[in-house]
Design goal:
The protein is mostly beta strands. The chain is 0% helix and 42% strand.
């Protein structure tokens, strides 16, 4: 059967052959609030749980359970959450790619989570221990997420430090990735 549920059409469902003798079927669907005081259906979200993402921040989530008896829509139960709040800023993964060779680019790649990331990255490139020395030096001559090791870096490890920062200036915990020991370029 068909019905209407708060302006959302409830369509016929096809019951698999192995479930034909079942009397009641429950169908779950998730919706996200929109700018027009309504809710938009989230395609392919039919599980018992839903993990909100960045696109859900500031929106309410609605979970509906639709009951079908003998193939006919009979009732609906739903609940609506408070607006989704951004998570704590975190770095899900951080990797330093490239060859640890003088003049060869080292590129930092990371995955941010925790609301809208601040447009100003909070990053730092560090030289750690030339020839076994424990000296740590901040490297100002980097180009954002890319650093080109110089002859001063030979024998040292290059560290990339990233502090996740949300657009409201909330900072997460700093994380680091290290290169292998920088080698001289073959000339």
């Amino acid at each position: 059967g068909k019905g209407t549920c708060n302006y959302y059409p409830v369509s016929d469902i096809e019951v698999p052959d192995d479930q034909e003798d079942r009397d009641t079927i429950l169908h779950i669907r998730w919706l996200r609030s929109n700018d027009y005081n309504g809710f938009d259906l989230l395609p392919d979200q039919n599980g018992l749980s839903y993990t909100p993402g960045e696109e859900d921040v500031g929106r309410c989530m609605r979970c509906e359970v639709l009951a079908y008896e003998e193939g006919n829509f009979t009732s609906i139960v739903f609940d609506i959450t408070q607006p989704v709040q951004p998570g704590f800023p975190t770095c899900k993964s951080l990797e330093l790619k490239g060859d640890s060779v003088e003049g060869s680019p080292l590129v930092a790649e990371y995955e941010y989570s925790g609301g809208t990331e601040h447009s100003q990255l909070n990053i730092k490139w560090i030289r750690s221990g030339v020839d076994g020395d424990l000296d740590i030096t901040d490297l100002a001559e980097s180009d954002g997420l890319t650093y080109y090791p110089t002859s001063d870096d030979i024998g040292a490890t290059i560290i990339f430090e990233y502090t996740p920062m949300r657009s409201d200036w909330t900072a997460g915990n700093s994380v680091q990735a290290s290169s292998k020991i920088i080698r001289a370029a073959n000339k």
